[in-house]
Amino acid sequence: MNLKDHILLWNHSFIEVIDIRRSSFSGSASDMRYKLPASAFLYVIRGSGKVLVDDYIYEFQSATIIHGGKGMVIEILRIAEALEYYLVLYKSVPILPDRKNLLPLLERSNPFNHQYTFVPGNPLTLFDKLNTMYQEWQKGGVFEHLQVKALFYQWVHELLWQLHAQNLEPLRPDPLDQAIRYMQNHYSEPFTLEKLAESVGSSPRTLSRLYRIRLQTSPAQYLIRIRMEKALDLLLNTEASLHDIAIAVGYPDGYYFGRMFKKFYGASPVKYKNSLQSTARWPEMSSEVARYDIADDVHLRYIDYDNHYQYNSEGVLSMFRNAKPSLLLTLLLCFTIVLGACSSGTSNTSASGNNAPPASPSASSSATAAPESPAADVAETRTISTVKGDIEVPANPQRVVVLYLLGDVLALGVKPIGVSDVYEGAAFEAELKDVQKLGSWFEASPEAILSLNPDLIIVPSEDTYEALHDIAPTVVVPFETMTAEERVSFIGQVLGKEEEGKKLFEGFHAKVEESKQKLKEAGILEHTISIMEGGNNRSMAVVTRKQFGRGSQVIYEYLGMKAPEMVQQKIDSAAGGDGEPVSFEVLAKYSGDYIFRSSYEGMADLTQDPIWNSIPAVKEGRLMEIDFGLAYYSDIYSLNAQLDYIVGSLLAAPRVK
Questions:
Q1: Nearest residue to 635 (alpha-carbon basis) of 508, 473, 542, 545
Q2: Burial annotation 191-215 (CB, 10 A radius, 16+ → b, else e)
């Protein structure tokens, strides 16, 4: 802690005393645990022992002073005798004229959030002032509280003077050790380097350097390692779905988690689990898993993520469900039923001259098609070239199952018989209301799909292809490497709807041009737009990529509107990521003339937040909420609906003055 910076920040901050308490704690009582609601000084009057402050243990004795920041947890671990102490709670705000100049210093060394402890050389002076402060505070009058505020400044002056005069350095924990402990206990929560640095009283640059020098890695990579090894433990030892595991270890959804898992381990979660199960004996699984677990056992806790859709708080609820029967066993059972039905039908025909009612739709088609036409075995099909090779598909599919790419199939005039789960508020929610849901799009139930007897399955990834291709002709649509036009054209080819696909985008592009003209005439088209999500933990995720979703494709790609310069640079370059977390203190720089904020149940309520409400777009009524379910998908059906909503919202919003 740089004492000069420490004093400078005290000099340029507004201080408010919140409460002064005098308390005692008996060694026979249960452990005392207290989460600080504000910055605090704890002054030990008598007693000695050990105290835990946010996972770091300090020894204390009479006259010890312990300081902690807001949100830190103080826990008395052991005391040799009865403990008596003063607790002073206060908060600080940088003085506005100096705020801009002080922010870099606050980020680097914030004395109000630091945790430290020391024993003063002249404790009686501090005790006398603190005792007077406590007595005046108890009187409760405005004059007395004003006197307390003046005395508090004198008390802090005395404290800092003793530090300076005695050339003392307050005992502080190792920031790297603190950061590692924090990650191990909070890996399931959203992370930013700034937040991590603040939690350990360091700066982002210093913390990054410590990770690099002492651990040969970065904070982000170290966090990924903890999350991946925890995820592997859950994957191998539970029946939790990928979505539940993703949420438990701090990722927004199973798809994003799957990508991170594959990048870390070199294979998708399902493939990796299967490979371990095929090479290791089950009795040895516990030791096989143990070598991956570096994080302490903690109670996993999930909070609203500011970037994706973690408002879905299912948690790891299904981890103890019964294991599903294997797909091979299910297929074998169904095949046996079909053979039995065919055999039964033949027997009845010989006896009575009439066909008996078929045992199942699939059995019926098999039993009746062959006698009517020898060519029935050569049904009309087409061969489609895919990333998995040539696939033979029905020329006119009637029973289509589709995962994720629901809106594209619907827009092409085909209503599926089974679909992956649909988010509330999706553009096609009503149209698919009565269609059977099959589970999450990255982990749909093979048994449920098999029961639908599909003649075509459309999937968005090779993992889902591997799980389902034995059921029916299955086509992978590698949507991440395709433009929207390429994707719809390909799906149109698969469904025999090529012309419909062309017309869809001809109509969409005409609608885009019409919308751009309306925005131009209204004087809106040249203004900037930001897309944001979240708001918890004093941080907002800002979209920095055209294909991220949340309306980004419509706004930045088709309408051609721009983001603020800091965001636009990332959109235009390879640096554009998924969603960049931005603290409220600098959020105004990332805010456009108009803001679209993804909305969902349980999102942070910012109506009373002073910083949020000071942003011009928010203050002047140009903040618009867009339903998460509507903005999540990027199919042509959803793009049309998003275009209508976005343009309508912009035209209805107050104009930029």
A1: 508
A2: bbbbbbbbbbbbbbeebbebbeeee
Q: Residue 76: how many CA atoms within 13 Å on its side-chain side?
A: 24
Question: Can you tell me the distance from the alpha carbon of 316 to that of 234, in angstroms, rounded to the nearest whole number?
Answer: 9
- In the chain the first and final C-alpha atoms are separated, in Å, by 46
- Which parts of the chain have pLDDT scores under 70? 1-3, 27-31, 54-56, 78, 80, 94-109, 166-174, 201, 255, 277-379, 574-579
Average pLDDT, rounded, for the chain? 77
The per-residue pLDDT for range 606-642, each reduced to its tens digit, is 888 899 999 999 999 999 999 988 988 889 999 999 9
- Residue listed under structure tokens 């030791």: 287
**d(C-alpha 289, C-alpha 232), whole Å:** 8
Query: Which residues lie across from 35 on neighbouring strands?
Result: 73
Q: Residues 356-380: pLDDT tens digits?
A: 333 333 333 333 333 333 333 345 8
pTM attached to this predicted model: 0.48
Please calculate the CA angle 193-233-580 and round it to the nearest 5 degrees: 25
CA distance 451 to 417: 11
3-state helix, strand, coil in the chain (%, to 5): 45, 20, 35
Specify which residues 384 forms β-bridges with. Answer: 391
Name the residue among 135, 104, 107, 121 with its Cα closest to residue 21.
135
539 half-sphere exposure, CB direction, 13 A CA radius: 18
What 3-state class would DSSP assign to 67? Answer: strand
Distance CA 356, CA 344 (A): 8
Does residue 414 sit in helix, strand or coil? coil
8 A C-beta contact, residue 68 and residue 40: yes
List the structure tokens of 124. 């009686």
Q: How far is CA 156 from CA 15, 58, 86, 130, 601, in A?
A: 11, 21, 14, 10, 44
Of 616, 529, 542, the C-alpha closest to 583 is 542
